[in-house]
Each structure stands twice: as structure tokens, then as C-alpha cells.
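We close this part of the discussion by returning to an individual protein. The amino acid sequence and the C-alpha cells for this protein are reproduced below:
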Amino acid sequence: MKERYILSLDQGTTSSRAILFNRSGVAIGQRQIPFKQIFPKPGWVEHDPEEIWASQLAAARGAIEAAQIESDQVCAMGIANQRETTVVWDRASGKPVYNAIVWQCRRSSDICDELRALGLSDLVRERTGLVLDPYFSGTKLMWLFDRLPGLRARAERGEVMFGTIDSWLIYKLTGAHLTDPTNASRTLLFNIRTGAWDEELLKLFKIPAAILPRVAPSSGVLGLARKEFLGAEIPVAGCAGDQQAALFGHACFEAGEAKNTYGTGCFTLMNTGPTPVASRHGLLTTVAWDLGRGYTYALEGSVFIAGAVVQWLRDQMGMLADSSESEELARSVEDSGEVYLVPAFVGMGAPYWDADARGTVVGITRGTTKAHFVRAALESIAYQSKDLLDAMEKDAGADIRCIKADGGASANSFLMQFQADILDRRVILPEVGEITALGAAYLAGLATGYWDSLAEVAGNWRRKREFVPSLSEEKRKRLLDSWGKAVLAARAYK
């Protein structure tokens, strides 16, 4: 009898990946395909939805080919995706009406200002767990209705469909118009307590309900991928936003367990169990997953620019030929030479939520070298994560004993050690690096009986490496005080 596997589609901000996993949670074949980033104006970020689909399909075919298996050996498929990125497409033709507006895009800042001026902040926070910020899908959708002639009228007639990237991929694969609560909870339109699209918010935001996808559990069969795509009808049986998928992949199944993903952005999530915890310190309350037995919730802190700051050093600044060089350069100097870089290239996320903050460098002298600059950029990732952890512990009323880490930048040992030092907490890396994709695979596999239980899934989690803090309290405090001053400078420049 042929061995069977789970296919995971990990659709990210800069690339589309597909990975095949076996029952032990080990990757046996994968493919990654980058796609174009579109920057029409400063602070604006777009993707071509058709390129996302084409790259994701090619990655899925490539993963099956790399694993040297037949399509009928894939028993289910899970999807993890960049979350708030917004797509609207024609119901009849299936063609996008505009480029995807990416979660990083700040074009709807004025709309958020207008909604805040109407006094809607508290209502939005209470219903959705979110803050009024351009990060989320709802105001991106409002911008499209305001700027594209006739789009709102077409939406009211049910002629177009809206979705985040999960919905777009599910639609392309199966023809169904679906999402899950983890993605719905990032739109500003979904009531995380009732588990439904919020009629009052839809009315206030002037968004027709007819364009919204149906919300299905994160683990459950959503439809069958058509045979023409991968050579077999494969059930799409798992779906979660990338950060929630990573929390699941880390087996953070108990309240109080937390992870940090170092990707394009940086995202700290803590499982809070079956009850949503309202943040008082600038974090988000979000749905962690739905296994069909009621929601599990999480607190989340979101940093917009993390690994992307290294890409910026490489692509825009020309300081690196390859991102991997950043670790060696950072280690070549004893410290950052009192240089601090605040990468607020698209404003600042949690816990500040300052859409007007801008990227800032302080402390430069004649003695500053490229190595100091690169080290300061890497350290900024750790400092931003420290800000999130402090807010999370205040909201939870308890200390987080350790952080499970994943994502591309977690391969940088300098960064991970500095993170442990600044947090004064252990940072633990898993044996399987592709933890986001693994989480989506687990959701699909649990839905189809590939894995029997959460206990079996948790048994697959294995530790690869642990970083232990070694910095003195005095030095830690001095560094954090200086970071705080740099953040003030970034927020003062409007």
C-alpha cells in the first residue's frame, strides 16, 4: 500500500510555498516560488492575484514532483496565508477587479481617521478585537469602493466577491467562496464573539453582505481541488491565517503558551483558551482556530517590518548581497555603536498603532560602519518583539516562561541569542522549520483522520535548539531605554 501524505500551501507575502508532510510531521518535498512586489506609491503595497495563484499552483506541483510521489498519495490539503491582504474578483469571470491590496499597505489611513472621528473605535474593538488601522481588510475594501467607479453598485447586485488570500485560493481550487474564522477575524467585519459577520459594522462601513465568503471551521473539508490542477481530486480540509497556523504548528494547545514568527513581519501569539481576552495594552484579540467544537482565542502583537528590514538592506540599500550575510556582519562588531534603527517603513503596529510613524535611524557618528547599521537592523527585530511580549504579559497577568520561534529570520543565530538576551527568556526553535505550513497540514490531517488527536500532533513537536539569556540586567535596561528613545523619535517625525 502506498504511503500517504498531507500537502500544505503556505502563501506568504513575498513567496508561495508548498510542502508535503508525513505522519511524523517531517517535510518530504517542497517548492518555493517568489513573486513580484508592487509599490505604486510610498506606503502602498500590492500583489497580482493571478500571479499569486499561478505561483502557488506551480509550487504545489513542484512539491509533489520533488517528493517523487503520485498525486493520489496526497490525502488532503491545508492552506496557510498572508491574512489581511484583500482581493475582489468578478463572480462571473473569476477575474480580479484590482490588484490585491497587501496587509502592509497604508492607503486607507485617511479612512481609519474618519472612522475614529465618528467614534467607532470602541465598537470595533468590542466586536472584532481589532483596532482601526489600515492593516486590516475592511478599510482596504472601503478604499476600493470609494475609488473604483461602479464597484459598490456591482457589489450590491452580488456581481463581485471579496476574500482574503485563503478565500482566493479556495475559490481557484474548488470554486467555493469560503473562509475560516482566523481570517474572517482580521477583516474588521467579523464579530469574534458571535462567530458571524457583524451586520452593524457592515452597515457603518457600507459593505454589502453579498460579497462576503461563508465562514467554515479551520479544520474540516471545504471542497475538492479539481483534478486538472494536481492530477487528483484532493480535499481542501484545513485553513488558517499564517500566524494562527504557526501557533497550531508549535502545538501551543494550552492557554498561556506562546510563539513568535520572524517573517516579513513579526507576530507574537499567545493561546488564551475558549474565552477572548480584551487587550488593555495595544494588542489584538483574535481567533486562534476553530476545530468545529467552538473557538480557541489568542492575544496577538503584530510588527509590520521584521525580516523585511533585512530585505530592505539587501535590495534597496545594497548593503548585503544575500540576507545570510547579515549574521556575520553583526558579529563582526561588539555592539551597534549606539545606532538604533526603527523600521517604521509602513507605520508602527502593536503596541503603538501609529500609522504616521516613519523609519528612523538615530545615533550615527563618523565611526558608524555598515556592520553597525546591519547589527542595528537585526536588533530592531528583537526590540520590537520585546515591546509585544511586555504588553502580552500585562494583558495576561502572567509571565511567559519561554517563546517558541519560527520563520525565516529565526535561522539567524545572532538574532535569536540577542532576542533571548533582550527578553530575558529562553527562545526555543523547533526541529521542523516550516512550522506555519505544518500547522495548516495538521488542521487538514485532523479533519480527514490522518492524525487522530491533538495529543498525537503535540507528540510530533521536537526541539532543535534553545537560546538562553546571558545579558546583565544593567546592560539590558540601558539598551531598552535607548530603544525607547529611538521609538519616540520615529513617532515624532510626521
User: Anything to note?
Assistant: The mean pLDDT is 93.
